[in-house]
């Protein structure tokens, strides 16, 4: 392979450009890096030692397993036996139990045979209600009758399906003339 003058010149020109810019730029960069190293202060925070783990012994190995299905069934059976405050579903319904409590109005009281009775209006009919009678659609038991209202103990189911009692009052409605 022979080199002519033209090929030689083509190789010589780029090499001369590379040699001209080689040393100048690297010396400035080296100086900047040296000053940056001197000015920079390194600080590493001390590490906090880890907490000491002290294992606790299991002391409940002789107790009943809390995840045992038989224990859960026993607790549920005991709860069901304790919650015998549900309404008597076999009892014959009274006339005032056909109406929701908010549609009933107490319009007065009367005394019959020494016992106070409430006069309760449902639709356009007036009924007599006495203590121990039932009223409303939530198994409401009348517990007291006064001049200003009727005290009622309703038995309703909560979100868990348990029967709970709540006290409400049907107040006397003043006549509108």
UniProtKB/TrEMBL annotation:
Keywords: Signal. Residues 1-22 form the signal peptide. It comes from the Bacteria. This is Pilus assembly protein PilP. It comes from Undibacterium jejuense.
């Amino acid at each position: 392979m022979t080199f002519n003058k033209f090929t030689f010149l083509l190789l010589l020109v780029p090499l001369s450009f590379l040699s001209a810019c080689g040393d100048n730029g690297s010396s400035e960069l080296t100086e900047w890096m040296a000053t940056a190293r001197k000015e920079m202060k390194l600080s590493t925070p001390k590490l906090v030692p880890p907490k000491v783990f002290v294992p606790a012994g299991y002391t409940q190995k002789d107790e009943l397993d809390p995840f045992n299905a038989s224990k859960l069934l026993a607790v549920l059976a005991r709860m069901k036996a304790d919650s015998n405050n549900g309404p008597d579903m076999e009892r014959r319904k009274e006339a005032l139990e056909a109406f929701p409590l908010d549609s009933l109005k107490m319009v007065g009281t009367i005394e019959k045979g020494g016992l106070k009775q409430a006069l309760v209006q449902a639709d356009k009919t007036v009924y007599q209600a006495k203590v121990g009678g039932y009223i409303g659609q939530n198994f409401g038991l009348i517990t007291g009758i006064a001049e200003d209202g009727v005290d009622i103990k309703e038995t309703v189911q909560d979100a868990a399906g348990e029967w709970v009692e709540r006290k409400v009052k049907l107040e006397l409605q003043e006549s509108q003339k």
